[in-house]
Every structure is written in structure tokens, then in C-alpha cells.
Amino acid sequence: MLFLCCYLLDLLDRGWRRSGCFLYKPEMERTCCPSYTIHLKASDFVPSKEQRRVDRRMQRFLDGTLEVRKPIEVTDDPNTSKHTGSYVHHTISISAGNESFSHGKKGENKAEELMHHLSDQIDKVVHTYNVSGVFPSGIQFPKAAVKKVSPAKRKLSVEGSEDLLYSCNIAFQIAATLRRKQSAESVQQLQMSRQSAEESDLNPKCIAEKLACSLNQLANVSGLSIRACNGHINFYSATNASADGDVQIVALPEESGSGSKSSCAKKRSVHPQGQKRKLEIRLKRSCFDPEEYALYSRYQIKVHNDPPDRVTENSYRRFLVDTPLLFVSPSTDGMVPLCGFGSFHQQYIIDGKLVAVGVIDILPRCLSSKYLFWDPDYAFLSLGKYSALQEIGWVKENQANCASLQYYYLGYYIHSCSKMRYKAAYYPSELLCPLRYQWVPFLLVRPLLDKKKYVVLSDIASLQDGGSSQSCIPESVMEMQHDDIGVEDSNDVRMDDDEEMITIDSESSDDELDPETSGLVSAAIDDGDLTNVLIGLRGSRLRYRDLQRAFGSTERNYLETQLRSYQRVVGVELSERMVYSLG
Questions:
Q1: Residue 338: is it exposed, middle or buried by C-beta count within 10 angstroms (0-12/13-18/19+)?
Q2: What is the pTM of this model?
Q3: Cβ–Cβ < 8 Å for 135, 174
Q4: Most exposed among 22, 41, 168, 175, judged by the fewest C-beta atoms under 10 Å?
């Protein structure tokens, strides 16, 4: 099946998605995870602090000013028996008993105890602030939860980051609680509370700094160095602390069963500091490339833990190489960009080495991001976020050669799936109404999506002034896109996880649909004229009006039911341009 690029664009604007040569559209009222098409206008894009930080980190890496190190490795002593294991464990101490917390069976229990202890200490400080008036009284704040920072999930491995052991995001939860409290008050009280909040600096960053300052004064957690970082409360090993406050984890070799010890190799620089690097971004038409496939295989196995026997060349071709889109050559009239329209692979090459590949469709009005896979050794660069920023920038830059290029499509936004919410962090994003196919600002509909999975977005937009919905960028975006340290960054994992999230409840039926939504479909969508639907039959293309009399009443009624459903999902215009094949 071959497909015109303009057809795919029109389908995207009706909630469709492409995966290889397969095009699909979820049944929004039935699926367990409603999937809203999301896009943003590239020229209006406002990068967040985290997104700017990712860009700066890449620039520092290319300039040679960012030093990245491998984790501490263990080399077995030649005299050590192969039957005895060698381990490295990190030790930290707290003043109460100077107890050692290490990895292993006992270490895990001790680490859990320590995290509970630290959480309790934070709760005590929050309670003290609440009683003393530092925080507004009469508000029940959430409990703190200190989490362990896993080395496997800690992607930024710059010098010193290995000292980070635990982290807590309670400051964001407190700030959100205060905002919800304010929104429930009257206009006058709201204005007063906002003024009070500003005077008291009750935002995540300031709250975290206040809490960290108080925690550092407590003797029973003095064995850890505590610092606030962008709204997070981070706990570092205080062993061998240097004069400037930096700390170093002590890696101790654990004795093996035979009594001999393993030796620890020193940290070795993977990318030496001071060496400048060259980044090349190459755009090529979709085709099979052995180097890309090797990178894809490594990514799927190491990042997604896919079994090697499932990562086959055929599956890779079907998923990311095959495309139904007909290539459109570039033109000089400003209608087609220099690369043309079609399916492409955007390669990211550092010093001659392929480190990431973005699979994209370039269409008459947009760039549609399909998938991204990258070298796990470069995870510290947050290549998922970096590639999204580059793709948005590509749209802006190529508007000079093709004025119609304006939008960046990120696939499906699934509000009920936490790891898919990162897409809305690219501000100002819009969601597609699944009923009337109108674009609605995300910030306008987010409160309702928090309460209900399936929402007719255009109903909300018609009740409010769209211009006032995006007037509060800092608070809304800040609450949404802060990164929980130790929580997987979805954008750096895959750009198209939505394909796995779209599952239909096989037991649902029309009778079980929400009455609020099931009645809206027939009421809001008028049936178009079926007579102009383009039909393919035995190699010929005919309008349905030319075939009506060829069918009996029973066959005609059945066919018209199918054509009506087809016309509703693709739209009247496409039903008259695309071919509905009858064989």
C-alpha cells in the first residue's frame, strides 16, 4: 500500500498514528488508556529549565568541559578463587550508633530503615513549619517519601554524582498542596494568599532549601550531607567529605568466603575532559542500515530488556524501516523543504560514532516523531530530550524553505500513564479532541483529565476563554515537568511507548459505554454524503453513487453501514480522495 504524505497528515489530525506500514486509531471510549494526539507549534515553543539544561549539558560535553566517568569497577585478585564472589558495597554512617549501611541482603534492610528514618525527619520539620506559621496553618501536607537513587537509573554520571544516595521530592508536593488550597478560596483570599506565598517564597525550590537547612541541623542525620537541588532534597554520603562540601562514597571490597579480598579498579574516564567533540546530525530517507540495526538491537536489549531472539532484523524493518509514504522530491517554490516529504531517519553521530537515531515523518505541515533509539553508554546526555529539542528546532529552521511547516507532533499523550506525561512538558502543547477533532490547549484541559480518563476536550474549550488558559506558565509547567531523581525518564526511553499502551478492553460493548459519551458521538457527528465515497473494485475506481444499484437492499444496507463508519474515522474529505477497496 502506498500513501500520499498529505493523507497521513489529515489522518494525524483525526487521531490516527503510523507504525511501519500499519495505520491505527484507538477507540477512545473503549480503551483503558485514552490516547490523545498531541502537538505544538514550533515557533511558540518555550523551553523549560530542564530542557535548557539538557542542551547546555550536550554543549559542555562537546566542548570537553563535561567529565563523564564509568562506575567503579571490580577486578578480581589473581589469587582469589573463582568459586567465591567479589562485591563492592558503599558505606555511609549516621551518628546514632555509627551504623554501616551496605548493599546486599543486610544492606537492603538497613537502607530501607534509613529511608524511613529520613522520611520521618522531613515530616517532623514540615510539621514544625506548619505549627510555627512558616507554612499556612490548617493544611494537611502529604507524607515525605525518601527514595533510593539507583545507579542504573541515575543517568547523569558527571563527576561527584556518584555520591548521591537518596532523594525526596516532597517540596513539589507541598507547593502543589498550597496551590490547590489557594484555588479553593475566594478571589480576595486567593489574591492575599498568593501575595503571602510570594513573600514567603513558598515554591518548590525555596521550600526544599528551607527543609534542607533544618535537616542539616539535626544531629541524628549528621552522617549524611543534605543539599537542595532544583526543588529536590538530596542526601549524599558524607564520608571523606572535602573542604568545599563535596563528598565521596567509600567503596570497600567485601571479603570473599576464602578470606581473600578483591581489588577495586580506579575510575576510568570514558570521555576524557578537555577533548572537544564533533556532533553531526544527518537526515536520510528511511532504509535499512546495518549500523542502525546494531544500535537498535543493543538499545532494545539493554534498555528494555528484550530477549535477543525477539530483536530480529525482520521485526526492525517492519517497525521502523518500512513505510507506506510516497516520497515527494524537494521543490524551489517554497512548497516542499530541501529534504522532501516522506519517512526519514535522523542520525546523531559523535566523533564518527552513531549514538542515536530518530525515526520521523516529514509532512506538508509538520514533523511527526515516531521513535528514538540510542546508545546506552550515552544515556547521561538525555538523548530523548535532546533529540526532541533538535526536531522542534528543525521545524523552525525549515520554515524558511517551506512556509507550511509549523507543527511538531509527539504521537499520543496518555494522561493515565505517568511515563507518557513528559510529552506535555513541551510547552505550549495542544491535545486533539477525540470527538470534534479540534485542538485544545493542554493546560486548559489538564484539571479535568486528572479526574476522568476520557474527556470531550472541545466541550471544555467552548466554556472558557482559550487565551486565559496559558497565562500561568511557570507554576503549571514547573509542577508537571520536574524530574523525580531515580524515576525513569520516559522521553529518554522511547518516543513511541504509546503503541504498547493502546489496548482495547475485549469485554466492553456499546451497551457498557459511558452514557455521557456514547450519546455524544451520534449527536455531534453528522453523517456525510456517501455517494461521493471513492470505491476500489476489481482494479477500477468508482464513486459509490455509481455502484448503489449493483447491490441488493441487504448488501447495500450492510455496505452503507461500513462506509458510514469508515467516513466517520477518516473524515468526509479523505473518504472522497482515498480508495475504499472492495477487492
A1: exposed
A2: 0.61
A3: yes
A4: 22
